[in-house]
Each structure stands twice: as structure tokens, then as C-alpha cells.
Specification:
6-stranded mixed beta sheet; about 20% strand; about 210 residues; two-stranded antiparallel ribbon; Rossmann fold; single chain; about 35% helix; alpha/beta
Length: about 210
């Protein structure tokens, strides 16, 4: 597809997510910031990304979702590397922190199987999360849309989520290239990350609380 059509294609990929958020979340008494007509609803989202480029794809998805949502809103985003969830203590902390999440987005490449730490986290999170509306999204690289591995990952996710009344919304988009150097520390020792929009340039990934 021509490059100038890529933004429109990415927008269409996010339409089903935006529609579900509008239906399930925006009229459910979300907290707001600001006053009167300038007030914006706050959506708390957790993104678990398999690698840096998958995190960029997730950021682009939220940019597209934001353009389609009304009334005004802001995203409170927390991003974690899936490798961190192999540690029991960090996995437990992530489940606790995400208990009140409005949106969970799993940004995977679509190769191989579901990371065991992520699957264990999902099972733990579904057991202790607050009983409130939540949109669960599994995002994959567009190139693997029809792969057997993606079908198996989606089936694995549904086996964990469905008994708790949760749907899994699939999302496919081209994974952006890594335009900035990868973080040098090993993923197992990096702190949780947050996606922060950079008005002066491309999206960046920064350590939480930095």
C-alpha cells in the first residue's frame, strides 16, 4: 500500500478499539481533570510490550484511538516490558497496579507463543482486578495477521479472559522501525516504563517517574 495511505489504514485498525471504549467506558463515571467545558475524562491504560518496536506500535494505536474518541479525554499510560513479568515479585506488583485499569493493551509481535510471564500475569490480574468495565486488546504486527502463532496466542488469551467475562479485541498494524537506540540495560532489570508523548518529535519511551 502507498505510504501516504498508511495513516488512514492505521486509523481503521484502531476503529474497533475506539468504538468499544466509547461504548463501555466513556459513560461509566470516569474521573475527570479540568473544569466545566474544558474537563476531560481520564482513561487509565496499561501497555505490556514485547520489545521497543511493539511499544511504538502501541503508542501509535493510542494516538489513533484518541483522534476518534469524544468527549475530550486523556490517557494515563503505564508501559511494562513483558520480560519483567517473568519475575514473580514484579508480576505481582503489575497485577496490583493494573487492578483499576480501564484499558489493557498487549503489544506482541505475533511470533512464537504467549510469553509465560504474561500469561501468568493475565491469570493473576483477572482474579484480583476490580469488577468494572475494561477493554482488553491484543496487538500484533500486521505481517503476522494470518499466522498460526497469532491464532494460538489469541486462543490462549481467550482461555484465560473469557471465564471472567472479558473479550479480547485483536488489533493489527505495521510495526514502526526502531528509530531511537534501544535501552542498554537488560530487560529483566529495567524499571517499568511509561509512554510519554513528545510534542517536539516522535514518541519516546521513558522510565516511569523519570
Amino acid at each position: 500500500m502507498p505510504e501516504n495511505n498508511a495513516p488512514a489504514k492505521r486509523g481503521r485498525a484502531a476503529e474497533s478499539i475506539a468504538a468499544r471504549i466509547a461504548t463501555d467506558l466513556l459513560d461509566s463515571g470516569l474521573p475527570t481533570i479540568g473544569k466545566d467545558q474544558e474537563a476531560a475524562q481520564v482513561l487509565r491504560a496499561f501497555i505490556f510490550h514485547q520489545d521497543y518496536s511493539a511499544g511504538l506500535r502501541a503508542k501509535e494505536a493510542f494516538d489513533q484511538i484518541g483522534q476518534q474518541l469524544k468527549p475530550p479525554h486523556v490517557f494515563d499510560l503505564d508501559l511494562w516490558r513483558t520480560a519483567l513479568l517473568e519475575d514473580f515479585g514484579l508480576r505481582k506488583a503489575a497485577a496490583r497496579l493494573a487492578a483499576r485499569a480501564d484499558i489493557i493493551l498487549l503489544a506482541l509481535q505475533g511470533l512464537g507463543s504467549l510469553p509465560p510471564g504474561l500469561r501468568a500475569w493475565l491469570g493473576q490480574w483477572t482474579m484480583q482486578r476490580e469488577l468494572r468495565p475494561c477493554v482488553l486488546v491484543a496487538s500484533f504486527d500486521e505481517r503476522h495477521r494470518y499466522s498460526l502463532s497469532v491464532l494460538r496466542i489469541l486462543d490462549d488469551l481467550l482461555q484465560v479472559a473469557a471465564p471472567h467475562g472479558l473479550d479480547v479485541i485483536p488489533h493489527f498494524a505495521i510495526t514502526p522501525p526502531e528509530t531511537v537506540p534501544s535501552l542498554t540495560a537488560a530487560s529483566e532489570t529495567n524499571p517499568p516504563l511509561s509512554i510519554l508523548p513528545d510534542p517536539a518529535g516522535p514518541p519516546c519511551l521513558n522510565p516511569a517517574g523519570a
